[in-house]
Amino acid sequence: MKTYSIGEVAKELNLSIYTLRYYDKEGLMPYVERTENGTRRFKESDISALHIIECLKSTGMPIKEIKHFIDWCAEGDATLQNRYDMFLERKASVEAKIKELQQTMEVIDHKCSYYKTALEAGTEEVHRNKKIEIIHP
Predict the structure, then answer these.
(1) What is the share, in percent, of the chain residues with pLDDT greater than 90?
(2) In the chain, where are the structural domains located?
(3) HEC string of the chain?
(4) How confident is the model over 44-100, as pLDDT tens digits?
(5) What's the CATH number for 6-97?
(6) Which of 52, 77, 89, 121 sits a CA distance of 20 to 30 A from 61?
(7) Burial letters 79-102, b for 16+ CB under 10 A, else e
(8) Residue 52 and residue 63: Cα distance in Å, rounded?
């Protein structure tokens, strides 16, 4: 079975070695093997787990809660409901962020259109007689 060094994994996942060491220290990588001299050796399954950790982190989930997920995985099938519920919660959180970003994009699109029209006319005066439309996110 092929294993990878911490440097190889850091490069593959675009993470710092420090981040990987921190994750290990926080108990997020309980299955990472160590050589006799303490060097971490990562398997494909460890890299897959790190992808999930990064996914959860990108949703704003704190490391402490990610650790709960890792612990639930180690406990096996008895925690399937906990893990499912956690992902439903993460999904709702991401959907809310997407909605917020879509509203932000609407404002940005509006302003891009506004300034493009003003640039084409050479002045903002082109907008003076139009109804002012304010989009609130």
Answers:
(1) 82
(2) 6-97
(3) CCCECHHHHHHHHCCCHHHHHHHHHCCCCCCCEECCCCCEEECHHHHHHHHHHHHHHHCCCCHHHHHHHHHHHHHHHHHHHHHHHHHHHHHHHHHHHHHHHHHHHHHHHHHHHHHHHHHHHCCHHHHCCCCCCCCCC
(4) 999 999 999 999 999 999 999 999 999 999 999 999 999 999 999 999 999 999 999
(5) 1.10.1660.10
(6) 77
(7) beeeeeebeeebeeeeeeeeeeee
(8) 12
Quick check: pTM over 0.85? no
Structure tokens at 100: 């917020």
CB-count exposure of residue 39 (10 Å: 0-12, 13-18, 19+): exposed
32 residue type, one letter: V
